[in-house]
Amino acid sequence: MARYAYVNGRFVPHTDAVVHVEDRGYQFADGVYEVVTIVGGRLVDEQGHLDRLTRSLNELRIAWPVSPRVLKILMRRLIGLNRVTQGTIYLQITRGVAPRDFKFPKHVESSLVLITKRAGAFATPAQLQDGVKVITIPDIRWLRRDIKSVSLLPQVLGKQQAVEAGAFEAWQVDPDGNVTEGCSSNAWIVTSDGTLVTRYANNLILNGVTRLSILKLAQESGIRFEERPFSVEEAYAAREAFVSSASTFVMPVTRIDDRTVGDGKPGALSGKLRQGYLDYARERGAS
Length: 287
Ligand code: PLP
What we know:
Elements (H helix, E strand, L loop, with lengths): L3 E4 L2 E4 L10 H5 L2 E9 L2 E2 L2 H15 L7 H14 L4 E9 L16 E8 L6 H6 L1 E7 L14 H12 L4 E5 L5 E4 L3 E5 L5 E3 L10 H12 L4 E3 L4 H5 L3 E6 L3 E8 L2 E2 L7 H15 L5
Parallel strand pairs: 7-8, 7-14, 11-12
Antiparallel strand pairs: 1-2, 1-6, 3-4, 3-5, 5-6, 8-9, 10-11, 10-13, 13-14, 14-15
The site of pyridoxal-5'-phosphate (PLP) has 13 residues, from helix 6 and strand 13.
């Protein structure tokens, strides 16, 4: 079956989906993106992703290429064309195409690209049964990590380092020794007294849409949680750990560097939150 992408006003076969060489996303990473999960053919936490997209665009003063209402229609058209019932949709907006020059171009339309990807499962049975490993690396990124920018080179290097260490993710660590977040996920621990901990959202992390939904679920379920930085040492000593993102939901972490987390098995609270998030994604979180 042919697979389509949406590029600047047209649905085109994926193999022919190209952007101009002078697109500012290509030359300057002058753009933003979102990844929204598709479950049962519906978009999970769509409004949360659109709210964050609005914020990213506003912070960078990039104009909407189409209205949010039209964007929602285009996403659904592409999902329908590609018959994706489970997977993700990637959307990228850049400042547009103009002769290469650092300052903002005038009278240029923003570029919009949409790509879907099917996913058989969002985690392998082994990942869910055994948990995954993360490594810790210095956080070398810029100080506006709250903007979901396509400038991802530190995360590319971090993920490659993780892969080469046999790990699923790399947790980035600030100069004080505190974990900021993963390269494409938020970082969580459960302390020995059962408190769920994740870093508060400011300019130093991306405020995950999944993170926000998990916090809401924790609140509704009466789970004690704290939004504060935690150190690598505290993570080593944690009872449980996990990462969250749109495409992994809640993924249990059972090794950090060369240390075993808790008893080395995915923790009970992580399991409860994963199930809670899956139920939410299939029911009230989808549109
Ligand atoms: N932090 C970073 C740096 C990310 O790149 C991502 C997702 O790509 C997340 C956190 C998780 O965000 P979300 O839950 O919205 O997918």
